[in-house]
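Researcher: Re-running this chain for the archive, since the previous output was lost when a drive failed. Same request as before.
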Amino acid sequence: MPSESTFVFALIAIAGVLMASNRVRFDIVALLVVLALMISGVLTVGETLAGFGNPVVIMVAGLLVVGEMLARTGFAALVGDWILQRGGKSEIRLLVLIMLGSSLLGAVMSSTAVVAIFIPIIIRIGANTGLSASRMLLPMSYAALISGMLTLIATAPNLVVNEELKAEGYEGFGFFGFTTVGAVILITAIAYFLLIGRRLLSDTGAVESGTEERRSVLDLWRSFNERDDFVRVRIEADSQLLLQTVEEATLESRYGIRLAGIETGRSDARSITVPDSSTQYAENDVLVLIGRANRLAQAIEEQGLSQLPKSPGIRKRFLSQIGGAAVLIHPESTLLGRTIREAGFHTRFHLQVIGMRRGTEIVPDYADTKLARGDSLFVQGPWSRIKQLANSNHDFVVLEWPGELYEVAPARDKMPIALTILAGMVVLTIFDVIPLVAAVLVAVLAAIATRCLTMDDAYRAIHWSSIVLIAGMLPLADALTATGGTQLIVDKLLYFAGDASPYKMLTVLFFLTAGLGLVLSNTASAVLVAPIAIYAAHALGVSPYPFALAVLIAASAAYSTPVSTPVVTLVVDPGQYRFTTFLKLGLPLLFLTYGATILVAPLIFPF
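Model: Regenerated structure tokens:
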């Protein structure tokens, strides 16, 4: 084996080990791969960095923005509410609607975003129906994975495989080119969960459902923080706080208490705001303070404040403007390993953390506790900021909205515009009016021009770590080809699978992609196996489309472990699943997916 190809194989193995260890970020691994290829001289500097200008990278970034547009305009939430209305209290009917809804949404937006949106919907469905949310969360995440098999734009591996076909001189799949195969797999998966899967989930932990009524902000906060209390106090003329700014008063550092809001103005028309550090206290301002009862009493006495009574009317007025929500730390969050103070949570999100749980245990000293996967927080602030949490699904996922949110949620008047933009992008792609990458960019610019989202929103919607991962791993496939590694793998596959049966080769390629997906990301596995599949088709003298389709589908069939993709990692904590749950449910579904692929793919794309 030539020394250069040996180096590339070793690099792939090292990248796989680093990703499987889950101790090094995937995007860091991708950058290390770029650096190694560049320094070793296997590829030139231009060839190594070419992935960052690849159309796939631009399309993935653009499609994330399109998905953000659908989330911000309320379309995804509308689908969830429709499921709740139509499903009633029938677990079978709800499962079918949930799996159809998440897969259809995932066909046109990020499947990770779909899961993030559906988690609170399913928890709400469980609370309203008395059914176990655990029996619905995992099927939903698997359906979101299968959404990647429905349309060309549904997931990054599809775009990778499609571009590889075009690079070799073939036509791409087309927008709905493999939808029939994906639909068969989706129907198979729904049948599997209705007949077998939901019974295998019967012994898993259930998400706390509560009663049919949605929990109030106060009740939800109490489930995260049992020790703190809140009071309303008025600043008197002789108060120590008078004319000081929030920063100068240092209430938090001196007393360990937090300022939840300030009421200002006339008693009959008071405005309630969450102040920033430069806000200056004034006479007759009413403060809402949160902290331990003894520390609150100490601050009231020392700072010359008057405690005011609490009443349902005042509480309702406060909650009309200030709210809260329970959020789960995303497995790829930039907050991991940092404390709330270190992360500058209030400055970054304009919200305050006033409660924390690790698993089911309340964390008393949460302000100085380093955040880890599976931690959940109770955050408080203006409703406008609370509602934006649904769009911040790169850092955390909303676990539960309080009941008060549904009383203040505004109409999503941009939804018709967003759906028109989406339809236009699909039409442009189906009829090949302009290239796919151009259609995606047109949709992004239209979303911004019509104010469905701002440019800042668009930038925030892009998972930059995913972009770096794709761009960094793309040169590996080029390096394999340039060093003869691809041809070597094809020769070994032909030796193993023989030259008489394309079905046998399709099987090998399917499980090679699925196996690599256990240690690499599904995008990285598609990057590596797609050129191998096309070379194998050339060697056998058959059409490359069935092989390319097998790679595409296997890349999305990451059912078997909870760490293969964030699409399934997100449901581990709210569903209280074990690692064995994914093996028990995922491996049979993987073989069913393979069976549907080998039966249907050659009918749509003959050898």
